[in-house]
Write a structure and sequence with these properties.
There is one protein chain. An 8-stranded mixed beta sheet has the order 6-5-14-15-16-13-18-17. A 6-stranded mixed beta sheet has the order 8-2-1-12-20-19, with helices on both faces. A 3-stranded antiparallel beta sheet has the order 3-7-4. The N terminus is likely disordered. Helix content is about 40%, strand content about 20%. Strand 19 and strand 20 form a beta hairpin. With about 475 residues, it is of the alpha+beta class. It has 2 domains: about 300 residues, FAD/NAD(P)-binding domain (3-Layer(bba) Sandwich); about 150 residues, 2-Layer Sandwich (D-Amino Acid Oxidase, Chain A, domain 2), CATH 3.30.9. The chain has 16 helices and 20 strands.
């Protein structure tokens, strides 16, 4: 075993996606050694658009201001005016219309939802990842490392990770940021546990990135550059600008009654299938002219994405000993709130905060070896994480399913009553967007102080940092 530097933790992150890199940057910012193990030969992101709220940006600033710099470098605000953003999300009736109405009744506005100043900023996933990578030092990453297993060799030994190429690596703890098909989640919960795997929601998404000039010519600048959701029976369509307004991110959600076949029994197989514009046209047949025009803008061939989540079998724990999961690996949610990445950033902040406390506690106890051992300190940190984070993330998984039903007029409490629909959407969105970050940090601090009172003065520094970010944003 490699000798441990006094008071120092070595962290392994499995998975080099958005949450994995943000967590790594936060740990490096706190002078905690970390290594990201990515199975691909380079960093890559799938999917098209991702959006962040002002609340998520505050969490990013607390993790590492460079994460906010990465967002600002490529984020596209909602609205067509470069000098002023449109801070409302728009909900429209994409289905009902009267072709005989001389004033036109297509795509009737059902309601506006205020997001706060610059409360909704769209990013191209791959572009955002590319920006994050600029801040990650090369020594903190190893590629072509497909995780196989993690060996616990006892409390006085570091964990030993094994990879498919026959190599291994040591770490005091392992954070699984390996996405919806997480192998670390299987390690924690067991390969026979259905909660180890995501399950099909019977929804699919047709996704496309369309050149903005084509959309502007067809629909005009307002619809092209402002986020819209077109609602209707058992389907809905969402779009917003990305790539500095050069691209139009369109996603159409529809019901898929058939089961989506799984791949090997230990994980989800291919989550996409080839599709055609005609498939989307059939799904939205009879909808209004605006939605019809949007369908016509799609390429002739595109991908159909199966929507999986952790709703059917939520994880009873995110932690096992010195191993944990974060982001989609812990609580994959359907994308209907557009909050999965933001919740993952909250996970990253919680872990970075707790592991900073852990590192400080080990450093303070280095003069008294019996005061705290690395395994015990790490386990305490992850136990607090497992108490604080699951309630909010599990609520997101449930609400993401329910808000989709609201958009598609089938929720039993709202139906087609858009006054009730908008009230529910506002309540759920505000719960996400106005999350009490300081309250979470206090809960983490209190949990730590209850176990390691010697670290109380250090723990309070995180709250001071929160107020500093508040003043700067």
């Amino acid at each position: 075993m490699a000798a441990r530097t006094t008071g120092q933790l070595q962290v392994a992150i499995v998975g080099g996606g958005i949450v994995g890199l943000i967590t790594a940057l936060g740990l490096l910012k706190r002078n905690i050694p970390v290594k990201v193990y990515e199975q691909a030969s380079t960093f890559r992101e799938i999917g098209a658009g991702v959006a962040f709220t002002a609340n998520a940006l505050k969490c990013m600033a607390l993790v590492d201001p460079d994460v906010v710099n990465a967002v600002n470098a490529i984020a596209t605000k909602n609205g067509q005016d470069d000098a002023e953003s449109n801070d409302n999300l728009r909900y429209h009736d994409g289905y009902n219309w009267d072709p005989n109405d001389p004033e036109g009744s297509d795509d009737k506005l059902l309601g506006l939802l205020y997001t706060g100043y610059k409360g909704f900023q769209g990013c191209h996933r791959a572009a955002f990842l590319d920006e994050l990578v600029k801040y990650v030092p090369s020594h903190a990453v190893e590629f072509r490392k497909r995780y196989v297993e993690c060996e616990d060799r006892g409390r006085n030994e570091r964990l030993l990770l094994h990879f498919s190429d026959g190599t291994s690596a040591e770490a005091d703890l392992v954070i699984g940021c390996d996405g919806i098909k997480s192998k670390i989640r299987q390690l924690i919960l067991g390969p026979e546990n259905p909660a180890s795997y995501p399950h099909f929601t019977h929804k699919v998404a047709y996704r496309a990135l369309i050149p903005m000039e084509q959309v502007e010519a067809a629909l005009g600048p307002f619809k092209a550059y402002n986020q819209h959701m077109h609602t209707g029976p058992r389907a809905h369509m969402l779009h917003f600008p990305v790539a500095g307004g050069k691209l139009f991110n369109l996603v159409a959600f529809v019901v898929e009654p058939e089961d989506w076949p799984l791949g090997d029994p230990n994980g989800v197989g291919n989550m996409t299938r080839p599709a055609t514009r005609a498939d989307v046209a059939a799904a939205f047949k009879g909808w209004g002219p605006t939605v019809t025009k949007l369908v016509e803008l799609l390429p002739e061939t595109l991908d159909k994405w199966a929507i999986f989540d952790c709703y059917d079998y939520p994880a009873p724990t995110f932690v096992r000993g010195r191993v944990c999961v974060a982001g989609d690996a812990a609580h994959a949610a359907a994308p209907h709130h557009g909050a999965g990445a933001g919740i993952g950033v909250e996970d990253a902040l919680a872990l970075c905060t707790l592991l900073e406390h852990a590192a400080n506690t080990l450093a303070l106890s280095s003069q008294d070896p019996g005061a705290a051992d690395a395994a015990g300190v790490v386990e305490a940190a992850l136990q607090i994480y497992d108490q604080v984070r699951p309630p909010r993330s599990e609520w997101l998984v449930t609400s993401s399913r329910e808000v989709c039903d609201i958009y598609e007029w089938v929720h039993p409490e709202t139906g087609e009553d858009w006054e009730k629909c908008l009230a529910q959407i506002r309540m759920r969105s505000n719960r996400l967007w106005y999350f009490d970050i300081e309250g979470m940090l206090k809960e983490l601090r209190d949990g730590w102080e209850s176990r390691f009172p010697v670290d109380a003065s250090v723990a309070k520094m995180t709250i001071v940092g929160y107020h500093k970010v508040e003043e700067e944003m």
